[in-house]
Fold this protein.
Amino acid sequence: MVAINILLAIFGLTATLAAFGGDTWIEGEAPLIKRITERVWVLLFCLLAAFVLGITKEIDNYQEQKESKSENKKLLTQLTTLRDSIAATVNDATSQIIGSNCEGLEAAFRLAANIPRECDDCVLNLDGRESTSIPGRKTDLMELYWGDEFEFTFIDGSKYTGQPEDLASIKFKS
């Protein structure tokens, strides 16, 4: 393509220079073709060559555009197919994840729902000990399950005033 552009420039320049100044035909009664000077023949040849090269260049450009559009259509079709495939894969994966999370949640609920619920209470004397275990009604330690609540009340009028700072040193361990 670059060679065609260079040739077009050369033929255009040569035609312009050939037409610039000088006689273009010889005076007389002879037919026009015989009266045309060499300068005009060079000019006509260069103009015709530039015209043919210009047409050739445009035909090549048209063919390249046609091939490019065809290639673009193929690539767009592939892109659409890949996009649809990815969307389907993401939807399948999402469904599997949601399904597995629901199955896990349902299994955990079934386990938690089967735990026998009852009130377990105890009275615990702290007696100034640094730590103590909270016993259950049926076992040595109170058992808490998912969703269970733990409430406590202090009964000691001499030390407990009902203020939050009175409970600052109470800690629970699991």
The mean pLDDT is 76.
